[in-house]
Amino acid sequence: MIRLTKAFTFETAHALHGYDGKCKNIHGHSYKLFVTVKGIPSEDVNDVKLGMVMDFGDLKKIINKEVVNLFDHAILLNQNSPHKALGDKLIAEGHHVVFTDYQPSCENMILWMVDKIKAQLPTNIELVALKLHETENSYGEWLAEDNQ
């Protein structure tokens, strides 16, 4: 069994409605996402992916489609909060707004990503971990072993 990890970066703004600190204000982060999967390397000599668990390029396509392309240079706002009106106004002015049905905290973003990524992985590949850095020294982490 081998684990593979690929890192991704994206710039996203968000606001945490009802929060009791500075993060109630619209602000942005240079997010860094680490995606770890595991599987058994192919032993089929006729397989163009011989010796690979998964092509890093295939993993990149999945993460870019499901996460990076959606969140990069967007603002995440909870659609179930008063921020919905602000988001609608920003959309009307041509801005990239992503409405969430959750408070767009690092923790909730990770949980959302887990569902999206798992649904796109080949059946022989398991999602093991996601680590999402909001800043250089602050991150949230999801581990499959904690969620069995």
Task: Describe this structure as you would to a colleague.
The chain has a 6-stranded mixed sheet, with helices on both faces. The chain has helices at residues 56-71, 83-92, 106-118; strands at residues 2-14, 27-39, 74-78, 97-100, 126-135, 138-143. Strand 3, helix 2 (83-92) and strand 4 form a beta-alpha-beta unit. The mean pLDDT is 96. The longest helix has 16 residues, at 56-71. The chain contains 3 helices and 6 strands; from the N terminus they run E-E-H-E-H-E-H-E-E. With 148 residues, it is α/β, with parallel strands linked by helices. The radius of gyration is 17 Å and the shape is elongated.
Salient structural properties:
alpha/beta, elongated, 148 residues, six-stranded mixed β-sheet, single chain
Care to count the β-strands?
Answer: 6
What would you call the structural class? Answer: alpha/beta
Tell me the strand order in the biggest sheet: 4-3-1-2-5-6
Number of helices: 3
Main sheet summary? 6 strands, mixed
Radius of gyration: 17 Å
Stretches where pLDDT falls below 50 for ≥5 residues? none
Give the % helix: 25-40%
Percent strand equals 25-35%
What form results from the Cα inertia axes? Answer: elongated
The ordered H/E elements are EEHEHEHEE
User: How confident overall, as mean pLDDT?
Assistant: 96
